[in-house]
Amino acid sequence: MILCVVYGVLIYPKYVSPYKDMIALPNKHWLWGTYAEYGEHNYEQAEYMEKHYPGHAFTRFHGPLGSDYIMTQSLEAHVQVLQTHAYKFVKPTFINRGMKAIIGNGLFFAELEDHKVQRRIITPAFTHGHVKSFIPAFMDKIKLVYNIFDDYTKDGPSVFEQVPIFVRLTLDAIGEATFGVNMHAIDDENNELLAAYHRLSTPADDPFFFLCNGFIPGFRYLPLATNRKMKQAKKVFRESCRAVLMQKVSSVSEKKLEGKDRDIVSILLRDSEHKWTIDEIENQIMTFLLAGHETTTGALTWTLWALAQHPDVQEKLRQEVRAAFPGGIDDISSADAIESLKYLNNVLREGLRVHPPLPIAVREAAENVTIENTFIKKGTIVQVSIALLNKSPRLWGPDAEEFKPERWDTRPMEHAYGFSTFFQGPRACIGRRLAEVELKCILAAFVAKYKFEMISPDQTVMTDFVVTAKPMDGLPLKVTRLEGW
């Protein structure tokens, strides 16, 4: 054991590693390297290297026991990893092991031909025409949340936590697309599936659990309290999913598999090519509910925070929505109407650009490959900083880190990869269109009716990043009910 540590820490990085001559981040810890700051400070790491060592395609940082991790730095390297050679890079083993324990084995973890087949089958659930059909359902759910907000603000402005409320709203919304059924997360706080989600996501937010489960094979089977909690949470969540799934199976069977139902479950049940098993469909549901829901909630939360920080932007957005829909929320009846709001589109995109819910993409080289004259050995972990792309001064100008929705009026970015929140290439987010329409509906409906303010001028919100980037201690805001809408 001691010899292994000595070799990994002192010998391999300096004399053996194929990347020993690559520019590297300063080592933070003799054993853990820079990995201890891997998630939370990823953007700062990438920004530091770009500032101090510009012009490099890749830079290096040290992982546990001197292991090799490299980061893409040049735009060309980003493009080749995420698009040109996308299928030569797969989800790393430690990510698969850590995440599969939480959300099962769905499209998110499929690779190569399996990924291509699954994506082709599921894509019809996310066409523009299908996504538009969800608008009335989204509006109905938003009206239910209005009741919650009105109760908080009935006696005047009120400070309350935003995240739990919008978790319930977005969980119901994603349930429509995934199951095609109402999951009742909004109108029933004791909803079994909602309770299971909270129990499941709690250990997912524990970096110790996530890293140990990812790096130590068999860790999840150890008799630890966290493992027991995770096992029970996953069991309850799967049972809840299975119950709703069987209701859908019965419904689809009674309709003799009519083609008009285009939620994910109906599409998979009708697929005659693959013949999906109930377990496989259940895994897809777990993936879209947890992965899709987490990112959507994160995007909404951070955009609300940006609007609270910029009251002038919030007021301009409010005026646009009220002018377009003077009759209130009932006027918002179609995706075409909501997507016609130019400033709303600007605000959403700017929020997603500055605060990407998934600030990094992590890949593992599935084979030897050369990119930008850099040889990348099979098994090497490659990290792509989405946040660095989104806020690159080279692509967005000197004010790249500032929240300025007006920048989208002229689309100043020089390359499509300047906005990589939904990733790019063959593994780009399949649910992007659904997420954007859902977020636009929610932002328009709530900003038009309520004012969101910081609770104090010096309020700060720290980022907690394990699976997705979210506010570390929630997001309390001062909310005021406005008249005239």
From TrEMBL:
InterPro entries: Cyt_P450, Cyt_P450_E_grp-I, Cyt_P450_sf, Cytochrome_P450_monoxygenase. Belongs to the cytochrome P450 family. It comes from Lipomyces starkeyi NRRL Y-11557. It comes from the Eukaryota. The keyword Protein transport does not apply. Keywords: Heme, Iron, Metal-binding. This is Cytochrome P450. Its cofactor is heme. GO terms for molecular function: heme binding; iron ion binding; monooxygenase activity; oxidoreductase activity, acting on paired donors, with incorporation or reduction of molecular oxygen. Heme binds at C429. The keyword 4Fe-4S does not apply.
